Amino acid sequence: MRLSYTKALNRALTDALAQDPAVCVFGEDIGAGLAGPTLNLLDRFGPGRIVDTPLSEQAFTSMAIGAALSGRRPVIEFQIPSLLFLVFEQLVNQAHKFSLMTGGQASVPLTCLVPGSGSRDGWAGQHSDHPYSLFAHAGLKTVVPATPTDAYGLLRSAIADPDPVVVFAPAAALPVRETVTWELAPIPLGSARIHREGTDVTVVAIGHLVHDALAVAEELGPEISVEVFDPRTLHPFDWTALAASLDRTGRLVVIDDSNRSCGIGAEVLATAAEQMRLVAPPRRITRPDGTVLPFAPGLDRALQPQRDQLRDAVRAVLK
Amino acid sequence: MLRLIRGFEELALTLVKSGEITGGIHPYIGQEAVAVGVCAALRPQDVITSTHRGHGHVLAKGAAPDRLLAELLGRTTGLNKGRGGSMHAADFSLGILGANGMVGAGGPIAVGAAWSARQAGEDRVAVAFFGDGALNQGVLLESLNLAAMWRLPVLFVCENNGYATTLPAVTAVAGSATGRAAGFGIPAAEVDGMDTEAVRAAAAEAVERARTGGGPGFLECRTYRFEGHHTMERLMKLRYRTPEEIADWRDLDPLPRAAALLPPGLAAQVDASVAEQLAAARQFAITSEHPDPAGALDLLYADGLRPRAGSTA
Ligand SMILES: Cc1ncc(C[n+]2csc(CCOP(=O)(O)OP(=O)(O)O)c2C)c(N)n1
């Protein structure tokens, strides 16, 4: 069976809704399934569980928190990644802090789903952010699946999780299709996936960049043996698996489509330098500091991590 | 209950002065009639969200004073195991979804609780307490719209004490509080917030309507805080209210008014039993254990995930 990334998200929502009556979905234009993952859900589960909201992100996000505090498992679909900046208060200051602040009385099993995160080619400054690093920094469980199978499995686990989780579905990964021959199943948060084994260098790639890393690894194959490491969750991060990978390769390159300063790429390098085996200085490829993506396609692309940059970085750490 | 809240706040003030409560508190003294009047109209299964000035709401909804005091002192026996303090006090077993340090933030959380009660077919009502300052938070206005559109069982209680910290409501709130609710088609009433019985009657009416499917309600309770915004204020010698204004409002103190309704002798009896209860609460809180610093982030995640340490050395 051929499964697209968007269809995988749709299947995950459908299965979660069917399995657990506490699950409900909030979002803008989700009744019509505008963004794809919520297609047909309204027909099947009705308006009591699939809630088309007015354009009131702050209120419906906190409303979902209130519902989560009262026994529901809400999923919110955000139309645009930049909307997360509007609800930073609700997610970081409320949802994330509730468990500790209440002395463990409350938990907030809320899932935020952001299909179309990152550059969508020509959507310009306010529609092209990929803000996963901010959420990992704040301590929310942060998930960036690269493949349809992982999108399904990680979204299922996010919904079942007792804590708030933000799931970023990169715009550039949405067209990915996969032939699925096995049963789709939940995938635990905090577990990395090695897409390709190698012995010379570990490339940590996040989200859609996993596919670029695989292409580069293939290309360099005859020359350099590249291990492609996909953390899948940025918080919690599977540091154990990364340490094991670096024990094999001793060399590290990170490719991360978020801003350089305080980005997750910086964290991976810092942790590896502090605690893991490195035989050469590591490298990272990221967006520039404080990036605002310009409109013109050439400018947009110029600020995103590129395959040739990855190729150069891999060669550089092997020198 | 009025007496208990007043006495609790007075005790808390002495503990702030003596340095036993760190960080200070936002005293509720003067506003007791609102919390008591509204909570008297609620059933145990109803839920509330509260504010940075939350002790009154939390006590009126039934929280144990000794555990609230222990929370203010940061002890393991506190309502929140010492992790929340004054501004986050919560008791979920009593429907207290927490005081909240962000102005206006409790509004939409109450709306969500009301939504899930309705979906579950339960006749629970949710109450959101907030101040006049919160009237200018966009998220609160968004919440009014959602509650009205979906006819949710939620009561918005605006405690208009005339000031947001030092900013007078008359210079900050365009139109009127009730006018804003009316703009969303929500029935709104203005009530004397120094009169416990008046608050209770107005709340009971709105709660009954919400409980029976009549949609949200809005109460503006005109009240006053006799103390500063925060206990820090005393040290700062701020001048934004005249002594005359404070004295005029003190004349409206809800406590003597409520005491006058009691049979002779009962008020003195209540005072004595509250004093006893608070002495015991003080003893309980002060002798309770401090949390172990090694567990400072123990409850960050409900699934027990342990965050990495800040240092690897
Ligand atoms: C969103 C937000 N803005 C500012 C503050 C700082 N602050 C805390 S309380 C307060 C005044 C709130 O006034 P009001 O809502 O009238 O409540 P009151 O203090 O009178 O009880 C302010 C400005 C805050 N905590 N949250």
From TrEMBL, chain A:
Domain (Transketolase-like pyrimidine-binding): give its ranges.
3-176
Organism in which the protein naturally occurs: Kitasatospora viridis
Q: Does the keyword tRNA processing apply?
A: no
Q: Which domain of life is it from?
A: Bacteria
Q: Which UniProt keywords apply?
A: Oxidoreductase, Pyruvate, Thiamine pyrophosphate
The answer, when asked if DNA-binding is one of the entry's keywords, is no
Cofactor(s) needed for function: thiamine diphosphate
Alphabetical list of Pfam families matching this protein = Transket_pyr, Transketolase_C
Q: Mind telling me which PANTHER family this protein's record contains? A: PYRUVATE DEHYDROGENASE E1 COMPONENT BETA SUBUNIT (PTHR43257), PYRUVATE DEHYDROGENASE E1 COMPONENT SUBUNIT BETA (PTHR43257:SF2)
Protein name, UniProt field = Pyruvate dehydrogenase E1 component beta subunit
